[in-house]
Structure formats: C-alpha cells, structure tokens
Design a protein that fits this description.
The chain has about 120 residues and is mainly α. It is about 65% helix and about 0% strand.
C-alpha cells in the first residue's frame, strides 16, 4: 500500500514527466528499492530528504508537506540514548511498548504534557 511519501513522490514524478526508474536513478538506487520505500516496506532514508528537495527544487510549502509525509511514512524510529540515564531509557522504551494499549484519554494526557513542555527544549 502506498505511503504518504509514496503518494507525494508519485505526484512529483507525474508533475515532472518521470517514471519510477527516473527518480530512482536520480536517488542512486534501484527502482525496486524506491518502490519498497514508497510502499512502506522500508523506511525513507534520511539522506533522501535533502536530496529530493534539491533535485526537484521544492518550494517552502512543498518542503513542509514533504517533511510531514516523510515523518508520517516512517515505520521505525531510532532513538539516540546518549546522555540518558537507565531510568529515562526504560521510561521511553516502556512508553513505546505500551502506547498502542493506552486508551484515548491517556494518549491525550501524554500529548498535552509533551506540548506543555515543548518550549523547554
């Protein structure tokens, strides 16, 4: 099933009169690899973000949309735990493991806490 990233790239190709193999060539990968990313079988490689923005000269609005679809299409997220103590690591991992089982009220509460602390970063 096509991810938001895949839909964005498909539209980009159509707008530029390109085929999947054309975009794959510009990214330096095979068509099958690009297809796997677009279909959510692989994560969007981090280096593709700047590459696609540059290759297709995306304007500010397109860049914002593109960054959002990349984020929405990620199935796996890596967390850099450098500087975290063991208790904080365990808390983050517990949240990740248990998040799906939380009810909507608890999820809203967590999101509210995170939004409130957003300015402290």
């Amino acid at each position: 099933m096509l991810t938001p990233f895949g839909k964005f790239c498909r539209k980009l190709r159509i707008d530029n009169g390109e085929l999947l193999k054309d975009m794959a060539g510009k990214l330096g990968v095979t068509s099958s690899y690009l297809s796997a990313v677009e279909n959510g079988k692989r994560n969007v490689p981090r280096e593709w973000t700047e590459k696609i923005i540059s290759i297709y000269t995306l304007n500010a609005e397109q860049q914002m949309e593109f960054n959002q679809v990349v984020q929405d299409s990620q199935k796996v997220v890596k967390i850099d735990f450098e500087g975290y103590n063991n208790e904080d690591k365990n808390t983050v991992l517990a949240l990740a493991r248990k998040f799906q089982g939380l009810n909507e009220d608890d999820k809203i509460l967590i999101k509210d806490i995170l939004q409130k602390n957003k300015g402290r970063d």
